[in-house]
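Support request, please re-run this one:
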Amino acid sequence: MKILQKFLSYISFSRSSGMGVLEDNIENLRGGFSQAVFDEQRQSTRVEISVPVWYRLTSNWSKWLLGRSVDHSGTGIRLALPPGVIPGTEINLRMKLPDAPRPIDIKGVVVWVKPATGDTVDRTTVECGVAFKSMRNVQHKEKLVYLIANKLCKIGLQLTRGITAAPAQSLEELKACYRIVYNGYVARKYCSANESQMHYHYYSLLPQSRTFALKDKGQLIGTISVVVDSPCGLPMDSLFKNELNHLRGHGRKLAEVSLLAVVPDQKKKKLFSLTNLDKQVRLFRLFKIMYEYARSVGVTDLIIGVHPKHETLYKYLMFKAMGSAKSYPGARGNPALPLHMDMIAAEENCSKCLKSFFFSEPTPVDVMHGGLKMNVDIVRQFLCEEQSLWQNIPSAGQKYFKQCYPGIEPRFNHSFFSIFKK
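Re-run finished. Output below.
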């Protein structure tokens, strides 16, 4: 080890370098996750990325050395690092991001090492995986998020060409979407367990509401819903009615983004979320069709409640905070930060990367407005049979439901009947 440290202390800028992949959320820093990392590398799409990077090792904390950024993949950011690094070596990385006044510093530890491959690297170099120790205190984290998100937008359409997004096509598919939401929300303690093993709200059953299904080779992998404002209001009215009424008072047509969930990939669930390309491009693909639909029905403003830790990514998507976070009973007391997007202003001021993703290759109108059509029998099933939601709808909302679906009134007291069914 002393020989290695002495060797590393003499490394200069001109020495040959190795390849490093930054990893996060790795439970076993001694390399137990290495095989999954290797498998992910073989399957990942590489995205060219170039930012100045410096590094320093435990052998010489006082000296920063210049490295080379190489590319970005589903496992993280690949960096040029010195050869001879071994697992367990602590390392500091300093990255200069575009438009950031100062570089960001990230602390990590090498978790695996293997010989480098490829024509672009020196044959004497090595590849090593570096686990982030923490991203919580990273300076200028917003710049890092924007840098990665821009790359996602540039390749997003290419990565999702085999993936389809459309309104749920059948009753069975709609239920499957709500089961995905249920599984994701229960796991994160955003909703309570229930017998139907579905999570939805009565707003998603209104005529202009849409639930979209994301599929990969016919397999359902994600969903998102959009609720257009109506006499029933929006789910976020329960916490942020004053903020929403302020927008309504200016003649804005609102819609709320809701019930967002993506099926987790078990091989990638331990990866740092920002570097999980597949997950992020799928989320972007869902937002694309949701945005297109909202715009097609005349919505001017999108509303969404998010956990405060996700604010940076939504700011990149042109949402802005319109109030302070509050404990949200509908999400079991988890904090909800109200965000708002002026769709007209967003379209005019968004980055070229966002425009290339959201406004090129539009979804055909017949696809966007197709799918399952709600009728009184389907709505009654969700409101009165799968779950007892009818009694939770305010009288004004019940009146609107009756206008939209004549005869929607429950045929019996489901909560009373369920006692005997048990």
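The two ends are 68 Å apart (CA to CA). The chain has two domains: 2-139, 144-374.
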